[in-house]
Automatic annotation (TrEMBL), chain A:
Chain ranges of the ABC transporter domain: 45-291
InterPro entries to which the protein is assigned, alphabetical: AAA+_ATPase (IPR003593), ABC_transporter-like_ATP-bd (IPR003439), ABC_transporter-like_CS (IPR017871), P-loop_NTPase (IPR027417), PstB-like (IPR005670)
UniProt xrefs under PANTHER family: ABC TRANSPORTER I FAMILY MEMBER 17 (PTHR43423)
Biological process, per Gene Ontology: phosphate ion transmembrane transport
UniProt xrefs under PROSITE patterns: ABC_TRANSPORTER_1, ABC_TRANSPORTER_2
Protein name as catalogued: Unannotated protein
One cellular component term from this protein's GO annotations in UniProt: membrane
MF-aspect GO terms: ATP binding; ATP hydrolysis activity; phosphate transmembrane transporter activity
Keyword Nucleotide-binding attached: yes
Record key words, sorted: ATP-binding, Nucleotide-binding, Transport
TrEMBL record, chain B:
Identification of the protein by name: Unannotated protein
Main location: membrane
Membrane topology note: Multi-pass membrane protein
Subcellular location: Cell membrane
Length: 296, 343
């Protein structure tokens, strides 16, 4: 676990000129419609008594958690307690693993995403995901990467250029790549690749964005950029982020859930609540120990 | 993470006054390998060199043995003449008719085998549970274990009759394509098409196993990314697996082509092995055609001049097959997916 102390003095806004700001405003003034895409706006995600198995092994038990619309929820906890598993339950990626099973309900704006007749592709289109390791499609160009979801989910869009610019701007990458949209996505630095992945997930205008340790492979500056992106997404998209970085959880999240698994026991949510409360006056002593870095 | 040239470095502080470069001596570091390493090195080098030597010896043998026929006929004439007649004096022999048949059979075989291989490889790597995967791999490998003589016999005694209606249908509906044109009274058995189908079955396992190997190396992160973006499994295959495996598909096909070019028994049994003009061979649905290897198998053991001519034809085949394989390995190792695949 790397706890990078980030100098709060780094202010990335300073290299955004006024002209850039104007440009960004102009591009966001245009409305891009994605035909067949998710309904507009953020959505509330709620887990009810969620459990997960790998084969015969129960790794997550009885998670009740509300991730309110437009807010940032951070999942914290020591390694192996089931945070990633929980995250993958939320957009039906869990079922891709052979032998994986689940119980309970995951409600997206009140509707169970595991209801019979609900297709996983539909769910995943509405609930985007950013992975720990940047995974752009290396042979595709930057532009194609951003538009990949349209092709994959067979959606139509009337103004692809604007969509590319909007998505890359929201991910804080536009300025760096505007002149080389046709170069391959693999030819970017790790931090840029991760932001490209964020742009790619945002392109379909998902209702929820899941992020599994999105900054753990990044340098402090890129980390800062990603955090800024998350901050800007507040209100537009519901964000659920797994992080091992306590400062990051404090900086970006509104709500926080602490996962913990006792030895050979499934992971559970020990405590959840507003981030400032969780970090200052949690009710459970284990939470306090964890957020203060005394174990985990 | 590898560093890609052209990567933009951001926010680097710019030094104001770079100090003048200092004179430096360059130390060249030479490592002295351990005894075990040296020994291993020698053994592997030895093995490598002996393979090369063997290859050279085969080439030399073919050249020396074929010099008789080539000298008398002339290399260029030999390469460009289609007929093969040893009953006239002087004998008129040439390899072009054989080459046309060889290439056509191989191309038909690969054209049929590649799509089948790609789909079986996908079925194995993407659409199977662990148990079914094992089972399917076993079946495909079993296909490789069938002696080619059996394939040939089966094609000759059984499959041939079953293919004739397909040939008929193709010629009736697509006869306007020269490839599928047949003359009125032509027999549809013993055709290059049928030989190609049988050879396709023989090269299927090797192509499938190369393609499968490459597909299974697709980075799981990219596959997950495609699925997480709302892609179907097939969409994921189209955006991630197939582009990644492109080099492997091309390389595997060429490797299969190399095999198909040299395939002997089946074509010796199935084709009349009478060299034809290219303009006749091209009508692959009708009876007729000869291939280098099949022809050699049929005519081996004749007089010394014929033998020399046959070896000359073998030399040509040797060069072509070697070239195909070399191109295949270059294609595979230059592709992103093939970097670690041995073919
Ligand atoms: N594919 C899998 N097959 C079997 N067991 C798995 C699999 N993935 C995870 N597990 C198990 O499930 C438990 C929870 O894993 P998970 O990846 O959710 O932890 P995590 O909280 O994300 O940990 P980390 O912080 O290290 O990423 C672990 O005990 C792990 O061993
Ligand atoms: Mg994890």
């Amino acid at each position: 676990m790397t706890d990078v102390e980030i100098d709060a003095e780094i202010d990335l806004e300073e290299n955004l000129t006024e002209q850039d700001q104007e440009e960004a405003e102009k591009v966001f003034a245009k409305k891009v419609e994605i035909i067949g895409g998710p309904p507009a706006g953020p959505a509330t995600l709620e887990a009810k008594d969620a459990c997960a198995w790998f084969g015969d092994r129960l790794v997550l038990e009885g998670v009740d958690l509300v991730m309110p619309k437009g807010q940032v929820t951070a999942l914290i906890g020591p390694s192996g307690c089931g945070k990633s598993t929980f995250l993958r339950l939320l957009n039906r990626m869990h079922e891709l693993i052979p032998g994986a099973a689940l119980d309970g309900e995951i409600l997206l704006d009140g509707e169970d995403i595991y209801a019979t007749g609900t297709r996983a592709q539909q769910v995943r289109m509405r609930i985007g995901m950013v992975f720990q390791k940047p995974n752009p499609f290396p042979a595709m160009t930057i532009r194609e990467n951003v538009l990949a979801a349209l092709k994959l989910a067979r959606l139509k869009c009337d103004d692809k250029d604007t969509l590319v610019e909007q998505s890359l701007t929201r991910a804080g990458l536009w300025k760096e790549v505007r002149d080389r949209l046709d170069s391959p996505g693999g030819a970017l630095s790790g931090g840029q690749q991760q932001r490209l992945c964020i742009a790619r997930s945002l392109a379909v205008h998902p209702n929820v964005l899941l992020m599994d340790e999105p900054c753990s492979a990044l340098d402090p500056t890129s980390t800062r950029r990603v955090e800024e992106t998350i901050d800007e997404l507040r209100g537009e998209v519901t964000v659920v982020i797994v992080t091992h970085n306590m400062q990051q959880a404090q900086r970006v999240s509104d709500l926080c859930a602490f996962f913990l698994a006792a030895e050979n026991q499934p992971g559970v949510v020990v405590e959840q609540g507003p981030t400032d409360v969780m970090f200052s006056t949690p009710t459970d002593s284990r939470t306090l120990d964890y957020v203060q870095g005394r174990f985990g | 993470m590898n560093v890609v040239p052209g990567t933009v470095l951001e926010d680097l502080p710019v030094a104001e006054d770079p100090p003048a470069p200092r004179e430096r001596t360059r130390r060249i570091i030479t490592e002295v390998p351990s005894r075990a390493d040296r020994r291993f090195n020698q053994i592997t080098m030895g093995a490598g060199i002996s393979v090369l030597a063997l290859l050279t010896l085969v080439g030399l043998f073919l050249m020396i043995q074929s010099s008789d026929a080539l000298g008398e006929t002339g290399i260029w004439t030999f390469l460009t003449r289609t007929e093969w007649r040893t009953d006239v004096t002087p004998a008129r022999i040439g390899v072009l008719g054989l080459l046309a048949g060889t290439v056509l059979v191989a191309v038909v075989a690969v054209a049929i085998a590649v799509p089948l291989s790609v789909f079986s490889a996908l079925a194995i790597t993407e659409y199977s549970t662990a148990k079914r995967r094992k089972w399917l791999v076993g079946v495909v490998d079993l296909l490789a274990a069938v002696p080619s003589l059996l394939f040939g016999l089966w094609g000759f005694l059984f499959l041939s009759d079953k293919i004739v209606p397909i040939s008929l249908w193709l010629s009736q509906n697509f006869g306007w394509i020269p490839l599928f044109k047949t003359s009125e009274d032509a027999s549809l058995t013993g055709s290059i098409f049928i030989a190609g189908i049988v050879v396709a079955l023989m090269v299927l396992p090797i192509i499938t196993s190369v393609v499968r190997e490459v597909f299974s190396q697709t980075p799981p992160g990219e596959k997950e990314a495609a699925l997480a973006l709302g892609g179907t499994r097939w969409g994921m295959i189209k955006t991630v697996v197939l582009p990644f495996g492109k080099g492997g598909i091309v390389g595997g096909s060429m490797l299969g082509l190399g095999r198909a070019l040299g395939e002997t028994i089946a074509v010796a049994l199935l084709l009349p092995q009478v060299p034809q003009k290219i303009s006749e061979s091209i009508h692959i649905l009708q009876n007729g055609g000869a291939t280098v290897s099949g022809f050699i198998a049929n005519r081996a053991g004749s007089d010394s001049f014929t033998t020399s001519g046959l070896l000359a034809a073998g030399l040509v085949l040797f060069v072509i097959t070697l070239g195909t394989n070399m191109i295949a390995s270059v294609v595979v190792s230059n592709s992103r997916s093939g970097a670690g695949v041995e073919i």
